[in-house]
Amino acid sequence: MEQVIDTNLLGEEIVKKLKTIYDPEIPVDIYELGLIYDVMVNEDYEVKILMTLTSPNCPVAETLPLEVEEKVKSIEHVKDADVEITFDPPWSKDLMSEEAKLELGML
C-alpha cells in the first residue's frame, strides 16, 4: 500500500527548503524577502511555485528559478516541481517579512 503524505506537511517542508535559498545581492532568504507568492501541492505530490524577482532585470533571473526548482525536487516525496515567474503584482519592499526588514535595518 502506498504511503499517504499530508500535503500541508509537505508544504511546510517546501517552505523550510525555500528559506535556504538566498538572493545573492541581499542577505535574506527568498521566502522572507517576499519573492514567493504561492506554493501549491497536489495529491500527486507535484509542486507549483509562483514567484517573482526583485526586478525584471534581476541578474539571477536565469538561475534563481532553476535553483528553486532543483531544491524543491530534492525533497523526499516531491514527484515534480515547476516554478512560474510573475511580475503581477510587482515585488516591493512591502512584501518583505518583518524579520527581513529587521535584518536589513529597515525597522
UniProtKB/TrEMBL annotation:
- Signal peptide boundaries: none
What name does the UniProt record give this protein?
SUF system Fe-S cluster assembly protein
Q: Which InterPro entries match?
A: Fe-S_Maturation_MIP18, FSCA_dom_sf, MIP18-like, SUF_FeS_clus_asmbl-assoc
Gene3D superfamilies, A to Z: Fe-S cluster assembly (FSCA) (3.30.300.130)
- Source taxon at top rank: Bacteria
- MIP18 family-like domain segment(s): 12-84
Q: Which species is the source of this protein? A: Flavobacterium psychrotolerans
- SUPFAM superfamilies in UniProt: Fe-S cluster assembly (FSCA) domain-like
PANTHER family in the record: FE-S PROTEIN MATURATION AUXILIARY FACTOR YITW (PTHR42831:SF1)
